[in-house]
Amino acid sequence: MTSVLQDSKAGEQGDSGIASRATAKERFDLLYGRLRYIHDTFIDVVFKATAAFLIVTGWAATSETARGYLRGDFRIAQLAVLGFSIYALLFAGAAYRTASVSSKLLKQIATLEYMPAEHYKDVVVRPFLAAVFAIANSLLAAAAAVFIVCIAG
Fold it and tell me: What is the pLDDT of residues 10-46, one digit of tens each?
């Protein structure tokens, strides 16, 4: 993905790119919109992931059918544990990437010098926050995996 700023620099060198014709406000609005979208989507995904874990774990705990499947064939429990592990790894990777993209957008916005950072820095997904959510998600996945193994065993 080419950044708006790179397009802008190319425009200063004679290229007639869209960004070279955009005002600082238009560039700010575009980058801030992306930053806000990433922030809101990240928070939404965190809550949906937690809800999914709780629903699956609750179903396994309360459904006699689910417990019967887990007790009947240990491979099903192993597949569930593998699924939880893969999901936790994918979530951690996505959280890291989200924080990285968010930081890059912050730098691009700051380079515009259109508005003080105090007005938009609160929507940046910080690496620490992404790590906290990734660790919490991994712990929840591990607890669900242990619970499934205990039911199966």
Answer: 444 444 455 668 898 999 999 999 999 999 999 999 9
User: Which residue from 52, 61, 56 is spatially nearest to 80, judged by alpha carbons?
Assistant: 56
Say if 7 falls within a structural domain: no
Q: Which residue has the tokens 């417990």?
A: 67
Q: In which residue are the tokens 């700010």 written? A: 28
Which pTM does this prediction carry? 0.76
Paired tokens of 31: 């980058």
Closest to 91 in 3D by CA, of 57, 54, 130: 130
Angle (CA) 94-97-102 rounded to 5° is 125
For residue 3, tell me if it sits in a domain: no
Q: Is residue 12 part of a domain?
A: no
Which pLDDT belongs to residue 5? 44
In this predicted model, what pLDDT tens digit does every residue of 38-92 receive, in sequence order? 999 999 999 998 898 889 888 888 889 888 888 888 898 899 899 999 999 999 9
* Mean pLDDT score, 133-137: 94
CA angle 93, 97, 98 (to 5 degrees): 115
Map tokens 């620099």 to a residue: 9
Q: What angle do CA 110, 17, 11 make, to 5 degrees?
A: 65
